[in-house]
């Protein structure tokens, strides 16, 4: 980085870090089925507290829970965000980032946001590709890393249904023909659905999942703003989970009022769809907790008018009393500003008995809270189809003793070999977590 750019970035960070507030509650108090929700604290400038992205130094790696071990499954990737495992065990990774912003988004506020994102390691150009990883000798390290599909538009979610491979780009769902064992797709895809996209596309990540019989797809579409400050006319179809009927091509809003849903998974006891949602910013370090929730057909979850049920956000005018009255309370809070993104059910993992029944969650880490929150992978235990107990740290140590981000976890998936794979978009690695008794190749 040129010295003048470094000084500008440092000065910006210093000025912003002097503003805002600090948390008065612990992350634990904002976690669980009944989080503490203090009064909003809106400051002149938002709290900005960033862990500067530095990557992993030499042999450094995350810290694992007792009884586990971690190694780098793949390295030298380009901003890996999301993971998907094919039935044959091949692992796909979306190397991706936000689409370019229009010139209209280049005012002073956007300039500051750009500097902040650069410091957090989130300003690299999108590779716009999905890569394929193979560990053919089963030593826990992928020796094959090749392009599976390229020329995409900020891809994120992926799912295979029969012989069709679906990709959720930032503005559309595209279908490709796929044959078992195929290691590269070169044929042209077919667009099956337009999604709310540019030119702003504030929350650009679109995830996708299929139901059990492969007849329907569910797609996450985040809001186009923090709290509808651009006007509700720019939020049509957003802050929602869409349902697409594959046979007919018809789609509808399955659930709404979800500010920025990302991870999607099925809970097998109840067959309910679950998601993790990033809640709103800029009303204090203690608000609002991100959350994990089951998703009810036709359910409304508050955004932008309220949070956690009927807690009104007074920044939003005009209000909608009828919608607020119907707002559902999420099942489980995940702490304020943790940026919980990755989500997968625990089935098939062989880590230990502590992780047999529940959800693994990748928490990308805060920018709007002082001190930091997130920057870890956690496990929320379940019983009878509902969260039951405190979260367990699986991977920590992404922020070092100098408050620098060595990595930031995003997508998580349980592999067919029983391991947990974690995409790290700052470390540019895929981490593999296993029981400490599993033999792996040393990194």
Measured between the Cα atoms of the first and last residue, the distance is: 29 Å
Q: Which regions have little confidence, pLDDT < 50, spanning 5+ residues?
A: 1-11
Number of domains: 1
The total strand number stands at: 31
Please identify the structural class as seen in this structure: mainly beta
Largest sheet geometry: 6 strands, antiparallel
CATH topology: Neuraminidase
> Measured on Cα atoms, how large is the radius of gyration?
21 Å
Q: Per the principal axes of the C-alpha atoms, what is the gross shape?
A: globular
Residue share in β-strands: 25-35%
* CATH architecture field: 6 Propeller
Helix amount: under 10%
So, the CATH homologous superfamily?
TolB, C-terminal domain
Could you report the average pLDDT, rounded to the nearest whole number? 93
Number of helices: 3
CATH class descriptor name: Mainly Beta
